[in-house]
Structures are given as structure tokens and as C-alpha cells.
Amino acid sequence: MQKYGRSFSDLLLSWFSVNKRQLPWRETKDPYAIWLSEIILQQTRIQQGMSYWQRFMQKYPTVQMLADASEDEVLRLWQGLGYYSRARNLHTAARQIVEMGSFPSTIETIRSLKGVGDYTAAAIGSIAFGLPEAVVDGNVYRVLSRCFGIDTPIDSTQGKKTFKSLAQTLLPENASDFNQAMMDFGAIQCTPTSPQCTSCPLIEICVAFNEKRVASLPVKGKSIRIKERHFTYIYIRCKGEVAFHRREGKDIWHGLWEPFLIEAGDLPCFGGTLTLLSKDVKHILTHQIIHADFFLLDIDEKPELPHDYIWINEDEVDNYGVPRLVELLLECIAEKQ
Between the CA of residue 256 and those of 75, 88, 89, 125, 323, what are the distances in Å? Predict the structure, then answer.
């Protein structure tokens, strides 16, 4: 293992020197910019996350400015990225950093920030401060499980310990480059499907390739149950105003706004003119599939609605952060204008 470990690290860093991705947050050691990129890129592809990072850096170039923003402003800028708890955690963490007086510079203090786990703390710590902490994420699991032939399930307690220990053992003096190399190698070379094995610099020491087990590694033990839900949205419009409410509680899209919603129920009779805009719009989340129907209701008198609904000017709807599914509804409304 140690023999392979030294070869693995050297080969990986050599590959990285030629193939590393040119990313704007790699051109700075500013921990704020690096932290922001790591939060945005959680469960988000780089191609999509890049523009969001640039917009956040332009509007909130310092952590103080981000901390001073309202939650609605942050959610509005985040709109379209999904996983909105990340945006709320980002905002909370910005205020934590301001209270600390400066960006935390140890793994323990970085990990204390809201929304920062072991991987993100290791990434920020190693890249911004040179701390000797190995990152372990999906890319790392895949690369290590294939190269070293490890079939322990990556989502098991033992698997997490095994891969973290191995990654830490492999870590050379330059933790920043090594961690970024692992990320890039898993994203470019050792991909989930159709990995570039024949041009891989690790081919001679890769157990999975030499034992023809590439397709079967890494191993996952748990299966995720997908929940299906049905939403009916009614965009209620009355004399230039529309009814919206803010989602609260522990359900999806906490803190975001939406028009009148019925889940798995019958359409109410409000009067007015009701128009079907779109039927059975399929919206896929990580653990849920939502089937939605969109309606437009034009009405002359405001109906009685639950107490948490407010009336806003229709031309100000864009000032409110909404989930992607509601964006689709608003697109349907715009086509009707």
C-alpha cells in the first residue's frame, strides 16, 4: 500500500500539472472566495455553478456584505441552483464569520460554520491555508476504490473511515494541489461511466482495471426511496396583484415563495376565470418527484385565503425568490401575456 501510495501521489500530481481545470477561485487564496465556490458547487456542476459564483462575488465581494444582505436577497440570487438550504446556511455562516472577526483558519473552526462538513472544511483548509487535510467526496471514493480495489460500501460507516484514512495516508506535503488533483481526476479521467482507462497514468497500479472491476466500483450499500407528490398551483390574479406565500417548516424550498398551492386535493371554487396553463409538469428532486398542474385564475374580488398568503404587485414578482418549479409556472404566465 505504501509503495503504491507514493506512486499514486506522484502520478496524480504529474497528471494535474498538465490537466488541471482553470477556475477563477483557483486564482486566489481568499478563503471567502474559496468557501463560496465550495458551497455553490455542492451538488452542482461547475458549468452551472460558475455563473452563480461570479454573480455572488460581484454583488457581495466581501463576507461582510453577504452577512449584511437579507435572506430574501440571498435566496433570490441563488434562485435556480436548488438545494436552497445551502443558501440559507451560506447566509448564516457569513454572519458567523463576521462575528468571529476573520475567516476561521483551522479545520475545527472552519467545520463549525453552518453548512460546512468534513469535505468542505478540508477543501477550504487545504486550498486557502495549506492545512494537511485530505478531501473525501464522490470523486475521491471512486478513484480510490478503483485504484486500490476497495469494495467496502462507500456509504457505510466502515467505508467512510477506510477511505478517509487512505486519503490522509496518501496526502503529500502539497495538500492543496493533491486535493484539487483528486477532484479533477475524478471529474475528467476516472468518471462514473466511460472512464478514460486506456490513457490513465494509474493504469499499471489500478486494481479495478487489472481485475476488470472498473464498472462494479465503488460499491454503494443503501438504496434511496423516491417519494412522488402532486402539486396544483393556482396563480390567483386580482386587479394587478397576485397571491403568494412563503414556504416554512421542514419541507422542501423553505424560505422561498410560491402562488396558491393545493397538494393532492380538489380545486377550490373561487369564481372568476380559471385557465389550465400546463398539466403534469414533472420536476425531479434528489429524493422526490413532483407532478404539477399550473392554473391561472383571473378574479375581480380577492378570495379568502389562508393567513400566510399576501398580495403583491404582479410586476414585483421577480423580486421574490422562488423554486425552479414556480419559475416554470411564471414562464407559462409570461407566454399568456
Answer: 7, 11, 14, 32, 7
Query: Which stretches does DSSP call E strand in the chain?
Result: 227-238, 241-246, 257-263, 273-284, 288-298, 309-313
Q: Which residue has the cell 376565470?
A: 273
User: Active-site residue among 27, 38, 73, 335?
Assistant: 38
Alpha-carbon distance of 155 to 82, in angstroms, equals 23
Q: How far apart are the first and last CA of the chain?
A: 66
CB 179 within 8 A of CB 122: yes
pLDDT at position 287, please?
87
Asked whether the beta carbons of 88 and 254 are under 8 A apart, the reply is: yes
- Separation CA 181–CA 337 (nearest Å): 50
Q: Where are the beta strands (DSSP E) in 157-225?
A: none
Q: What is the percent of the chain where pLDDT is above 70?
A: 98
pTM: predicted TM-score of the whole model, two decimal places: 0.82
Q: Which amino acid is at 329?
A: L
- To the nearest 10 degrees (0 to 180), the angle between helices 118-129 and 175-188 is 120
Question: Is 240 exposed, middle or buried (CB count within 10 Å of its CB: 0-12, 13-18, 19+)?
Answer: exposed
Rg (CA), the chain: 24
The three-state secondary structure class of 57 is helix
Q: What is the rounded distance in angstroms from the CA atom of residue 171 to the CA atom of residue 214?
A: 23
CB 253 within 8 Å of CB 323 = yes
pLDDT at 266 over 90: no
* Residue 38 to residues 78, 281, 290, Cα–Cα distance (Å): 14, 31, 28
Q: Which residues, other chains included, contact 144 with Cβ-Cβ below 8 Å and sequence gap of 6+?
A: 150, 163, 166, 167
In the residue annotation, 71 being an active-site residue is answered as: no
pLDDT tens sequence across 111-140: 999 999 999 999 999 999 999 999 999 999
User: Is the predicted pLDDT of residue 4 greater than 80, yes or no?
Assistant: no
Place of cell 476516472: 190
